[in-house]
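Q: Got a minute? One more chain.
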Amino acid sequence: MNNNDSATETTNTRPTSGFTTNIKEITDADPMTGNNEYKNLKEFYVSESGHARLFTATKYGKRFMLKCLKKDFLYIPVYQQALSKEFEIGLQLEHPNICHTIELEQVDGLGTTIVMEYVDGDNLQTLIDRQQITPSLAEKIVCQLMDALEYMHNKQIIHRDLKPSNIMVTHNGQNVKIIDFGLSDSDSFYVLKTPAGTSGYIAPEQLLPGAKSEARADIYSLGCVINDIANVTNSNKLKKMAALCTTRDTNLRPQSINELRSHSFSSSRYIIATIILAIYCLIMAGIIVATYYNRSKQAAEEETGIQTQNGDSNKWNDNKIVDYQQW
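A: Always. Here it is, folded:
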């Protein structure tokens, strides 16, 4: 292989988070040219304080969500690296309650773009604001969030920005889809490790020097989300769960989703109902035992009475024989 071929191969290699060897290759490339097969491109969301923007588009008769950098950030290597890291983390996740990451493409007019599934639904913050969460839906949302987080944590992936606006609830089936892995972290990365999150949902220990990404940080954020839901449904069970998850002392906070599940968060109504049911069962058991005892006693008395009558009859017969002999 000659030097020209080697240079061409290096230029065509797609940079990925943590593996970029030549930042100049990124900045010299034109990020605005690429795939123009996407149709009906419409701007969906632009982050006011962040670096990303979202578009909806269609291809092959199917809708997609496209995430790319804002124009002011297109040529800044650290943000290109952050977008690649988000793609690589998202690509590892295949779960029904996590938005599916499909591909990283160069899209004409957008540059490097993450292609994701389109989720038809509302974000959880909208449902909370509209007070549209029933007790049964609240239980379902919390259970599915726990399932998704447990799956992620088992892959050593921490979301780091779990909040109602990053949780979609589908119109069809009302199922959870966790979105936005822009701040997520994984053990396999050594870049962009600075603690991150959203005020009101970030774990307090993440603001301390030397903080590391860990499952307990996501569990704290989960507790904040559960508390928001509990305020709508007025569920004591969810409030207790939220209080445990948001314990400031990390040693008292559940270390994993599995540990969180092991706690009992039964409501007072459930406890009262359980006590009443137990009392009822005891009363019924007492009635059955008493009935059985009385019937056994009655049967014994009847048997004793029959034996007594038979004894008197035998005695009369004996006397009769004696008298007959006397005569």
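A: The chain has two domains: 14-117, 121-265.
Q: Perfect, thanks.
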